[in-house]
From TrEMBL:
PROSITE patterns: MOSC. Residues 21-171 form the MOSC domain. Coiled coil: none annotated. It comes from Streptomyces xanthochromogenes. It comes from the Bacteria. This is MOSC domain-containing protein.
Amino acid sequence: MDGARGTVTAVSSNGEYAFTKPNRDSITLLPGLGVAGDVHAGVTVKHRSRVAQDPTQPNLRQVHLIHGELFGEVAEKGFEVAPGQLGENVTTAGIDLLGLPTGTLLHIGAEAVVEVTGLRNPCLQIEAFQQGLLKQVVGRDADGAIVRKAGIMSVVRTGGEIRPGDTITAEFPEGPHRPLERV
């Protein structure tokens, strides 16, 4: 392990297409599929916009993680967002999700392992959820490059049950690290 650690603060899933996901006492990750009973679980892509482009592409967005610190950041701008409301499955604290390299393995709880595939590309549904919020989770850095802050996406490598309070430990990939890109 490489020492980057955090904690699960909330877990969420939804069996129906809806922007938000209700919080749960626990969720079960299924290898190669995602969250048991979640509408986005599957080997091939399940997000509607991506299905419309190519329904056979692999599902690199099986589990969506978001850093709970984002909620405090947007609260300073007048937005109230709670865990699960941005459609994430796992809300975290204490780990810099956006700074992880592509391919990082996140060991969550006693058994579950997810592999980080990239950044969530925030969509217009965020703006429909709360007007002006999209601008808070997508911006530009000093060099004009797009900065996406709405969490990261991953695939399940090892299944298991996860719940609030579980520890998250990052294991970085070998070789030169690649920064996260939109998936």
